Amino acid sequence: MSITVYSKPACVQCTATTRALDRQGIDYSVVDVSEDADAFALVQGLGYRQVPVVIAGERHWAGFRPDMISALA
């Protein structure tokens, strides 16, 4: 399953999310929405107005969600 974290610089919840993924040993990629207009449009198109937005296969969520991260492990 492909996991992508849509993030922006100096985002505390984004950092917490990537650290939690690292602790679980989960592979992911990070996309900076402040530098990628297409990624920003994708996140907005899903209805999100905050980062991080995590897309894991068919599931997606916004914010730091340790419960959802644990479910991926």
UniProtKB/TrEMBL annotation:
Q: Name one GO molecular function term.
A: electron transfer activity
Give the UniProt keywords, A-Z: Disulfide bond, Electron transport, Redox-active center, Transport
- InterPro entries for this protein: GlrX_NrdH, Glutaredoxin, Grx-like_ET, Thioredoxin-like_sf
Report which superkingdom the organism of origin falls in.
Bacteria
**Gene Ontology BP terms:** cell redox homeostasis
Q: PANTHER family in the record, alphabetically?
A: GLUTAREDOXIN, GLUTAREDOXIN-LIKE PROTEIN NRDH
Please state which protein family the record places this protein in.
Answer: Belongs to the glutaredoxin family.
Question: What is this protein's function per UniProt?
Answer: Electron transport system for the ribonucleotide reductase system NrdEF.
Q: What is the name of this protein?
A: Glutaredoxin-like protein NrdH
What species does this protein belong to?
Answer: Shinella sumterensis
> Which gene underlies this protein?
nrdH
